[in-house]
Amino acid sequence: MSDAIQPIVMPKWGLAMTEGMVIAWHAEAGAAIKAGDEIADIETAKITNVFESPVAGTLRRVVAPTDEMVPVGAVIAVVADETVTDADLDAYVTEFQANFVPEDTDDGGPEPEYVEADGRRLRYLKMGDGGVPIVFVHGFGGDLNGWMFNQPALAEDRATYAIDLPGHGGSSKDVGGGDAKAMAAAVASLLDALEIGKVHLVGHSFGGAISMLIALKHPGRVASVTAICTAGLGEDINIDFIDGFISGKRRKDMKPVLEMLVADASLVSRDMINEVLKFKRLDGVDTALQTIRNTAFADGKQAGSLRPVLGELRVPCQVIWGRDDQIIPVAHSDDLPDSFSVHVLDGAGHLPHMEKSSEVNALIGKAASA
Amino acid sequence: MAKKSYRQAINEALAAEMRRDERVIVMGEDIAGGMGAPGEQDAWGGPMGVTKGLEPEFGRDRVLDTPITESAFIGAAAGAAATGLRPVAELMFVDFMGVCFDQIFNQAAKFRYMFGGKAVTPLVVRTMYGAGLSAASQHSQCLYPVFTHIPGLKVALPSSAYEAKGLLIQSIRDDDPVIFFEHKAMYDDEEDVPDESYTIPFGEANLTREGDDVTIVAFGRMVQFANQVADKLEKDDITCTVVDPRTTSPLDEDTIIEMAEETGRVVVVDEASPRCNMATDVSALITQNAFKALKAPIKMVTPPHVPVPFAADLEKEYIPSPEKIEAAVREVAAA
What we know:
The complex is a heterodimer of chains A (370) and B (335).
Chain A: E1 5-9, E2 19-25, E3 32-33, E4 38-43, E5 48-52, E6 57-62, E7 69-71, E8 75-80, H1 86-99, E9 113-117, E10 120-127, E11 134-137, H2 151-154, E12 160-163, H3 180-193, E13 199-204, H4 206-217, E14 222-228, H5 239-247, H6 251-259, H7 270-281, H8 285-296, E15 317-322, E16 340-345, H9 352-355, H10 357-369
Helix pairs in contact in A: 3-4, 5-6, 6-7
Chain B: E1 2-5, H1 6-20, E2 24-28, H2 54-58, E3 63-65, H3 70-82, E4 86-93, H4 101-108, H5 111-114, E5 124-129, H6 144-148, E6 154-156, H7 161-173, E7 178-183, E8 190-193, E9 206-209, E10 214-218, H8 221-234, E11 240-244, E12 247-249, H9 253-263, E13 266-269, H10 278-290, E14 299-301, H11 312-318, H12 322-334
């Protein structure tokens, strides 16, 4: 009987998430829902995001009240068809909750690993298995955790790797020349070290330029490129963001800087700011960021536009942009070669993969399945 | 990044700085154990096991067991700092500091000033403080206000494992003498601590909670109690900002004043004896600078002005507890 009942549980977004809070339900008991329907807004310590139903059917019970903390994995709603009686539903929920053990936070699924590549220790997080893997490349100042809304979803039917670029996250802080070329070489060396063949590259911002460079240099090993709010397509860059990110030492200074990243400033949580400050305190990070700034964004402009060589790209390429991007203008997605598909998302800034994760995941999934 | 204890975080900071800079040495009573005698050398690793593993890695030239004579080895450490090393001396309990006040107050703290800015004194004195282990009145005091009083000294009070590693590395790299206070009831407290080295700058308060109703300024272990209270009261719709100044010298006056102004209701929590402690100092700071913003009198939560009792029940009553902090917060919130 319980086969007819499908629990919807509190999702785990990112390595650090242990609990979450439904701040609004977008579906009521009795509603017919499809997998992928946006059924709730869930707030975590890091960021608030839309939660999509993982299952289809009739939403029979909303179990988690709004504004109440719920551990990851606890039932928040129940889907079942009409043949299931209310008494059975009640019994199911009671039993689920009685047997529910919150996940041990020390054993919370996949952990980042390290690999030696070209003299550097690089950190990556692997999720999922099989198929042509997706490799996620973050941008300036980011790290592999930035893909927390994307990697778990896309890892369901293939291998995925989120990596930390040199100078970032848990990777060595030596950035070499610090330009996109040096970074592309480091990513290629990481793929070699892990003996990964062909990949779909998903790059954000600076990571987008890095991904396109890898595709230009090693067309045989790249199946597709998804470049999100990417660098490399023009000169403009919000240098106030770059400089503010480098110089910010306190929460007060960092908050307005990070708010430039998103269309809705309220998405920037105190944990997000603290994580950035913690990263910036690591030995070597300041030098690494300065080096990148002084090569890739010297004189407040992006160095090395890829536009003259885009025609040489031999792999399918899609560009995704947030309409309200305050870091790199959405206009950089104009006038691209016909081989590029361009998707501009409303209501998103420079982090559409977080702000509009379901749409971005669908686009990446499509590119990776083509 | 893995969960690490306060003890491990301090040990990692010491080991990493000793690897990074060969001028860094550690010294103190039983910090390895067995110096000058046959038998096991790293038997102790300090009274709380904090320095365990340093002697095998760095050897006796850099890990020095000292006689039970604080006046001698703290003086030696100050001299070593003035002549080119970067010593980290462990003075087991801060309660024993009295015998070496001259070495610290009159010598180490004054070198830079007396030599016209030409001398540096990169000395760190690590020391245990605080009540809670029934260690009685001679091993339980919180003497950080005494050191905060002396110009030329810096005073750090890490409130968690992450804070301990970053503040200790900053202390070791600092060119002035730093008294680094470790609460003896916190050594087993765990949290995520990066494997890599990082520094937390001095004089920058940390907001461990942010709320609208009451500002709690707390020091050292009391930050943890204040956080517990803030989390509990949130369920009753009283939201608190918790300010952890991290260092009492330098003190982040700006953040304290700003946070006091934001809520207008302030509780200061200090485990040190109530006369001339950080609670009185911070209260004066706020009344002088943010008086017009205050909506209620500032409440101080401190122990009574008595020696720390040995009897467990009395000691429990002595320590500013989460219950006492909660009562104070409720009182200023309602005023």
